[in-house]
Amino acid sequence: MNGAPASLLRACRDLTPGFAVAALGVAGATVVNAALPSVSRLVVALVIGALLGNFGFVPQTTRPGLQFAAKRLMRVGVVLLGLRLSVSQITDLGPTTLLVIVFTVFATFFSTQAIGRQMGLSRGFCLLVGTGFGICGLSAIAAVEDASGASDDEIATAMGLVTLFGTMAIFAIPYAGGLFGLTDVELGTWIGAGVHDTAQVVAAASTGGAAVLTTAIAVKLTRVLLLAPIVAGVNVARSRSAANSGLTTKRPSPIPLFIAGFMACVLIRTLDVLPNSTLDVAKTAEGLMLTAAMVGLGAGVDIGKIRELGPRPLVLGAVSWIGIATLSLGAVLLTV
Description:
globular; mainly alpha; 16 helices; 81% helix
């Protein structure tokens, strides 16, 4: 009986220094976001973590806690993200809008990987970029990082690309929507389908009014729902590859536990069994955990190694960004 409490105490002691750094990063990101609401708190947290890690402010004692935040807290945050989405929100979009979402996600996901491999980039890195640009930015990249087999620096680079081009989209897509004369529903659908991270979608849609924002969030969260089948597909493909290669390593579950949790939260929200006060608490917890995870991920970034990857990742990011913006706009104009 004494062994379990002692082990728990040791684990808490090992994790505490890293948790303290993550908490400071969350506080800093929250302050910046409050002063500049158009700047995503997740992006700021990632930058803070990278600065701390590359300027020697992350001693070895903080690594266990920061790594725990980057992986475990990220997954809990993704699970809680499911409480934002109900089946009725999806069905209210209508079949044509759902077609736009599915087409844009899968076209971006597969074409980005094909182009990246033609450029000589690793399969794992291309998977990260295709998932991040196609679905929900940083959270999606974190969801497939284990299955991708990519290095920490490739993960950091993929997140940097989503951050860079998603930030550009905050300003470019609403401006272009005005030039094309899009209606509120059309603009909201384009933003929800063509901008990467959820926070970036909110920032871009907020400039267009309530109707644009409501549509954009519904479309975006429906894109997030597609994370489940894509992660399942990636894990099945990885299992088959391992079997064909004769490897005896443990095969990943087709549906990771945190993705199953995400789907369960969608079901809970659909059944409407939780009061608004509980949903508000869950949303706050989700934001804090995802922000802490970004600090942990940023702290593991080695900028020197990222530079060694060369300009090809930047080119792939630009191609993927232009591709998803063009595909989603074309689909909106043709169907919505």
